[in-house]
């Protein structure tokens, strides 16, 4: 969900918020704060955390209301800020802002790099996964880390797609997704197809054996991670995939496939 507010309020030149759009919101289990990812004037990303109790509970859930309640934005080239309220200063205010060196995915192995602002999100499939449209690539799937604690997961999956490059076992990797000069995710070919069923067992076993021949364990062979159409069966979602030469582990994963395909739960 994207929510906008025009920050030019009553000609207040001390408020440097510009036009804001909340792109994502999440709770970090390691802190009591709620975290927000915002775009500023359409081309700059800033990250704001807000202490619990600064606003009423219902205000955190209503993004238009929350945007209207945000304090004045300090000027400067910052990308992280933290909002608090104290006994001596009870109104919400920025405790600090800083220009942080945010983590990114490495290494960069594909020649194409696409700025986050260069594609349009059509439908959020999951908080970190979206069906999107790109002027040159057409309909695509975007997978990305919204916040810094999510980077490690997508770094691992980016590496797996490098291992798979050219082997035609998953969707084509179309390029790295860039935000503020760092890689935060990747773009994939959007494939049409259905989830696998038990009738597809032989075809699913075949593609899984091909994956194992590259010494890769998928790690999660449920039926939703096989995409089936007339031409092919491909694997998707390699977040938990690892390199392995352990034949016993490969056999165990292959044997688990029958049970997984019989499970028709969503």
In short:
By secondary structure, this protein is α+β, with helices and mostly antiparallel strands.
Q: What would you note in describing this structure?
A:
This protein starts with a strand and ends with a helix. A 6-stranded mixed β-sheet has the order 1-2-3-4-5-6, with helices on one face. The chain has a 6-stranded mixed β-sheet with strand order 7-11-12-10-9-8, with helices on one face. It has a 3-stranded antiparallel β-sheet with strand order 13-15-16, covered by helices on one side. The protein is of the alpha+beta class and 266 residues long. It is elongated. The protein contains 5 helices and 17 strands.
Q: What topology emerges from the helices and strands here?
A:
Blueprint: E1 3-6, E2 19-27, E3 34-40, E4 44-50, H1 57-61, H2 63-69, E5 80-84, E6 93-98, E7 113-115, E8 120-126, E9 129-134, E10 138-144, H3 151-164, E11 173-179, E12 182-189, E13 194-195, H4 201-213, E14 216-217, E15 226-228, E16 233-235, E17 242-243, H5 247-262
Parallel strand pairs: 4-5, 7-11
Antiparallel strand pairs: 1-2, 2-3, 3-4, 5-6, 8-9, 9-10, 10-12, 11-12, 13-15, 14-17, 15-16
């Amino acid at each position: 969900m994207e929510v906008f507010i025009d920050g030019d309020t009553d000609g207040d030149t001390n408020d440097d918020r510009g036009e804001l759009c909340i792109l994502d919101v999440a709770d970090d289990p390691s802190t009591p704060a709620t975290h927000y990812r915002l775009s500023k004037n359409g081309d700059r990303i800033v990250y704001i955390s807000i202490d619990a109790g600064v606003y009423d509970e219902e205000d955190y859930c209503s993004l238009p209301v929350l945007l209207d309640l945000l304090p004045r934005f300090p000027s400067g080239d910052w990308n992280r800020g933290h909002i608090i309220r104290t006994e001596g200063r009870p109104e919400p205010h920025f405790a600090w802002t800083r220009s942080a060196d945010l983590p990114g995915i490495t290494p960069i192995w594909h020649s194409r790099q696409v700025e986050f602002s260069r594609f349009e999100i059509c439908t959020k499939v999951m908080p970190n996964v979206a069906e999107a449209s790109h002027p040159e690539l057409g309909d695509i799937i975007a997978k990305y880390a919204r916040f810094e604690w999510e980077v490690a997961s997508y770094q691992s999956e980016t590496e797996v797609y490098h291992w798979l490059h050219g082997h035609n076992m998953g969707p084509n990797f179309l390029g790295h997704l860039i935000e503020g000069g760092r890689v935060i995710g990747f773009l994939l070919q959007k494939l049409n197809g259905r989830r696998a069923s038990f009738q597809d067992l032989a075809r699913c076993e075949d593609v899984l054996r091909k994956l194992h021949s590259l010494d890769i364990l998928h790690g999660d062979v449920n039926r939703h991670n096989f995409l089936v159409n007339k031409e092919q069966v491909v694997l998707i979602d390699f977040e938990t995939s690892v390199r392995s030469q352990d034949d016993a582990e490969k056999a165990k994963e292959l044997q688990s496939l029958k049970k997984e395909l019989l499970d028709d739960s969503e």
